[in-house]
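Sorry, explain these C-alpha cells?

___
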Amino acid sequence: MEISSLNQAPLDRSPNSRKVVAFLVGLAFPLFCLGSGKPVLSWSSGQGTARGEHVIEGIRTMDGGFLAVGRTMERVGRYSDGLVVKIDDSGRLEWQRTLGRPGAMDEARCVVEASDGFIIGGTINKGGRSRPGLWKLGRSGQTKWFRTFEGEGHGAVRGLASGKAGIVATGYLGFAEAEVPFIADEATGFLLKTDAEGNLLWRRELPVSQGSKVEVDAGSGRIAVCSTAWRFSGGRDNQDGCLILFDSLGKTLWTKYYGGADMDQFFDIDPCPGGFVLAGHSRSLGGGGWDAWLVRVDKRGNMVWQRNYGQPMGGDPKLIYDECYCVKATADGGFVLACGSGIEPENVRNRRDPLNVWAAYLIRTDGKGRESWKYLFHKPRDGHNAAEWVVPYAGNAYLLLLDSDHLGSMGEENFGFLGILEKEALSPGKRP
C-alpha cells in the first residue's frame, strides 16, 4: 500500500505493524456497497509469490484478459524484482514473470501494450545503481529486450504512454536511494521519448523532482505530465499538484499548480473531453487528514472544479487516510477512482478499532465529480486491502487491483484482483 504521513510525502508502513493490528482486530466487516448505485462483486483472486508483493498498475489486454505490474521481494535481504502477472477475464492465472537480477533493486512500475507484446517501465539495476529502464515482453512474458537510461544517482520510470512512432516515459534521476520512493524529493524529474525498440530519441529535464504519470494526445502529439511540487505559501513550505504540458518534441508549453495551503499530491492523470482529470490526495480540503482528491481541468490547464472524498466508514477525519493513486474517465463522461482508506499505525488510538485495518475503496462519480456510488472491500479479521489501480471495461465492469493480505494462497501482501460489475438495480432485500 502507498501511505502518506501527516506532515510529509508518503512513507512505507511496517509489515510487522500491519500484522499485529490485523490479528488484534476482533470484528469482521463484510464486503458491502454504499450509495445510490449497485456495484456487485463478480469474482476475486490473488496472485504472486510467498515473499510479498506490491501491485502498482495494470491494463486490459487485447485478448480480453488483464496484465498487472509491481514488485516482489527476494528471499534474502531487502532486494526486489519486478513482477508481471497475466490473468484471464475471470482472474485465473495465465502466467507470471519476475524481472531483474538477484541481489539488486528492480521494480516494474507501469505498462502499455504493443502490437506484439508489452512495454514495461520501472527501475533496472546496472552497475550497482537503480536506473530508469524499459523491458519489452512478448505475449507469453518472454523478455525480448531491455534498456536503461544513464544519469546521476538512482532513478526509475514511473509513467508510460504510447506516442507517435515511439514510447514516452517520465520518472526521475539523481535520487540518493536505490528503492523507489513514493515521491523522490531532491531528485530530478525527466521526460523522454524512445523509438519502438526503446532507443532514446530525446530527454528533457522537468522543473519538479519526478514525473508521476504521462499522457500523449494522439492527434497533436502533445504530452501532459502530472507530478507533485514543493512550493512556499502562507509562510511555510507545502506541496501542490502540478501539471505540465509539452509539445511533441518536449518543449514546455505551460506549467500549472493546484492545491491549497497544506499538502496536496497528484499521482495520476487521464484525458477526458476538453482537458484532463487528475487525482491524488489532499490535506487542504476536508477535515484535517488526507482525503482522496479529484481535479478537472480544461485543455489550457485551468481548473474547472475539484472534489474531495473520505471517511467512507466513518471515523475521525484527522486519523483516517483516504489515498488515491488512480483515476480513469468512464464512457458516460464520469470518473472512477481507486483508493485506500484506513488509519496509520503511528496514529492508532484504539488498537481494536477495525478502521486500523485498511479497506479497498472504489469511488464512481458523474461528470462533475459528484459521487454516484462507493464500494468497499474491508476484511479486518483477515488483513489489509488497499486499492492501487482500476481498469474500467465493457461499459459497466471494473477490475480493481489491490495490495491484499489474504486474497490468494501465497502469503501476505499479494496482488489482489476484484472483478466488479455496476448493475442498475438489485432485487429488494438482496445484498451483493
